[in-house]
Design goal:
CATH superfamily of the largest domain: Pleckstrin-homology domain (PH domain)/Phosphotyrosine-binding domain (PTB)
Largest sheet: 5 strands, antiparallel
CATH class of the largest domain: Mainly Beta
Number of domains: 2
Strand order of the largest sheet: 1-2-3-4-5
Distance between the termini: 18 Å
CATH topology of the largest domain: PH-domain like
Helix content: 25-40%
Number of helices: 3
Order of helices and strands: EEEEEEEEEEHEHHE
Number of strands: 12
Strand content: 25-35%
Length: about 200
């Protein structure tokens, strides 16, 4: 599996010229880099052409997710939703090229740890979640149980017919997929999040 590169060590929390905490990422290979800035009363964002602000007191939900993407399995994402329906998100990985992804884990974690308490102070009724919503988590878990049962059936039939190559290949594929999905299920277990102490399995 390809691992993202990490930038040189720096101060964990990035600050702009005015001393405000910020975080930036490029979520897609084709697209602009987006900068999120924590202002005293809002979460501001800009991609250089378009900008916006989410007033902190209007934020209704925050969700932290483990969301692997393509070849990169150490990807974490924060979704911030306004009570009126608008939402933004950012992740710890930023795309630099076709085969190059930069992991800003320390800066991401530091920004999350100042953003969540700020939202909690400004919006006491805001809800903080970790992992997938229960309904989605349940569907994924059920789907994986079906896959496991199907894989076991294939292996048993291959062993009965002495098809060793098929049995071995099935076990190898099932083992790899099982490891990936077990990681997803463990990290994305639905939990309530304390904004002052985000769960370590969801913050790199």
């Amino acid at each position: 599996m390809t691992e993202p590169t990490s930038p040189p060590p720096a101060d964990a929390l990035w600050r702009d010229a005015e001393g405000r905490p910020f975080f930036r990422h490029r979520p897609k290979l084709v697209g602009a880099e987006i900068t999120f800035t924590l202002e005293p009363d809002a979460l501001a964002w800009s991609d250089g052409k378009i900008e916006g602000r989410l007033p902190l007191h209007q934020i209704g939900t925050v969700r932290i997710l483990y969301r692997p993407a393509n070849l990169y399995n150490k990807r974490f994402r924060v979704e911030v939703g306004q009570r009126l329906g608008k939402s933004v998100w950012f992740a710890n990985l930023t795309y630099r090229g076709l085969m190059e992804v930069e992991a800003n884990d320390a800066a991401f974690a530091a920004f999350v740890r100042v953003l969540l308490p700020a939202i909690a102070r400004a919006a006491p009724k805001a809800r903080f979640f970790g992992g997938e919503p229960p309904w989605r988590y349940g569907l994924v878990a059920l789907f994986n149980l079906v896959l496991v049962a199907a894989g076991i059936a294939v292996v048993v039939e291959a062993l009965r017919s002495l098809t060793w190559a098929l049995a071995g290949a099935t076990l190898a594929v099932a083992g790899y997929m099982g490891w990936q999905m077990a990681t997803w299920l463990i990290r994305n277990r639905p939990v309530a999040v304390d904004p002052n102490a985000p769960p370590p399995q969801l913050v790199p």
